[in-house]
């Protein structure tokens, strides 16, 4: 390594941010992953994420396996149909709509992992299997540990908390610097979910990945119910976002007010942050070219 100056290799991790000139983001990720800047720019973003996990594994007194050795549990065909499903989608209603509001869960998957202690060693743990103390996973015959904190959920908390704060700050001030750090942390969070189901990740486990999706489906459904109770129609929903149309002839200002309250009610009900994302004057969902009765997004 060079002394007195930095040399950032643009072929691996740093290339992710280089075209945008996102040096503040690379520095931010070096800080949270505890990897020196020059080394970070030469590894992958998954390597940065795993560095955070190893740090907390060490802190929590867990051994770090030299190889991945947590194979998938046996599944019947029916088990796979039930559990291996990804996020929920409300098919868009074909047509043109005015005054539509979009709500979305901020960093939904990482928030679920942090809030519900979802980690490879906490999903279907042995210590809570028989005494009934585990958190029940919606719709699946899985449980989550309530006795130990998970490595992955603990590792995700710092980048998640920082990202939500930066996002809020950028929304208020328009800061370019913090927008950059927000983008870099967003990538770390996106990768954290992928690594849960990645077969070569040291702390990955497919059941933990399925657990996140099961909570996401349950919470999107619950959000839709809360919005419908307040006179909204769901015209589209996908994984972590819903689009709402008024059914009670309220003015745009009143509808904005009501939907902001709905976002707060959802946050209180499910325990992860739902944000009011924006108000569309007009939104259009097109039919498929091949099948005109079917919306293009389904
Ligand atoms: Zn347990």
Structural description of this entry:
The protein has 298 residues and is an alpha+beta fold. It has a domain at 77-108 and 155-203 and 214-285: Palm domain of DNA polymerase (Alpha-Beta Complex), CATH 3.90.1600. It is built from ten helices and seven strands. It has helices at 13-18, 23-33, 37-40, 45-59, 77-83, 108-115, 151-173, 176-196, 206-229, 252-270, and strands spanning 89-90, 95-105, 135-136, 143-144, 232-238, 241-246, 274-285. The strands form two sheets. A five-stranded antiparallel β-sheet has the order 1-5-6-2-7. Strand 5 and strand 6 form a beta hairpin. Helix 2 crosses helix 8. The radius of gyration is 21 Å and the shape is globular. The mean pLDDT is 89. The structure holds zinc ion (ZN). Zinc ion binds next to loops. Zinc ion is lined by residues 125, 127-128, 145, 147. Keywords: DNA-binding, DNA-directed DNA polymerase, Nucleotidyltransferase, Transferase. This is DNA-directed DNA polymerase. It catalyses: DNA(n) + a 2'-deoxyribonucleoside 5'-triphosphate = DNA(n+1) + diphosphate. Its EC number is 2.7.7.7. One of its GO terms (biological process) is DNA-templated DNA replication.
């Amino acid at each position: 390594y060079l002394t007195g100056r930095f040399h950032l290799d643009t072929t691996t991790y740093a290339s992710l941010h280089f075209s945008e000139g996102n040096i503040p983001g690379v520095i931010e990720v070096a800080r949270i992953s505890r990897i020196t800047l020059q080394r970070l720019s030469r590894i992958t973003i998954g390597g940065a994420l795993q560095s955070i996990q190893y740090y907390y594994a060490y802190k929590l007194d867990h051994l770090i396996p030299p190889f991945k050795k947590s194979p998938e549990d046996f599944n019947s065909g029916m088990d796979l149909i039930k559990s291996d499903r990804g996020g929920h989608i409300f098919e868009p209603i074909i047509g043109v709509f005015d005054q539509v509001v979009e709500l979305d869960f901020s960093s939904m998957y990482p928030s679920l992992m942090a809030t519900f202690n979802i980690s490879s060693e906490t999903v279907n743990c042995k210590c809570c299997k028989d005494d009934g103390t585990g958190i029940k996973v919606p719709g699946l015959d899985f449980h989550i540990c309530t006795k130990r904190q998970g490595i992955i959920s603990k590792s995700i908390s710092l980048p998640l908390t920082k990202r939500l704060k930066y996002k809020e700050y950028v929304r208020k001030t328009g800061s370019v610097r913090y927008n950059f750090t927000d983008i870099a942390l967003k990538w770390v969070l996106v990768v954290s979910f992928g690594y849960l189901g990645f077969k070569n990740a040291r702390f990955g486990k497919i059941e933990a990945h399925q657990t996140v999706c099961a909570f996401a489906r349950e919470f999107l459904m619950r959000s839709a119910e809360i919005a419908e109770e307040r006179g909204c129609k769901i015209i589209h929903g996908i994984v972590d976002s819903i689009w709402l149309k008024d059914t009670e002839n309220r003015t745009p200002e009143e509808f904005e007010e009501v939907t902001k309250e709905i976002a707060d009610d959802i946050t209180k009900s499910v325990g992860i942050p739902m944000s009011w994302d924006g108000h569309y004057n007009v939104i259009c969902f097109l039919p498929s070219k091949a099948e005109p009765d079917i919306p293009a997004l389904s």
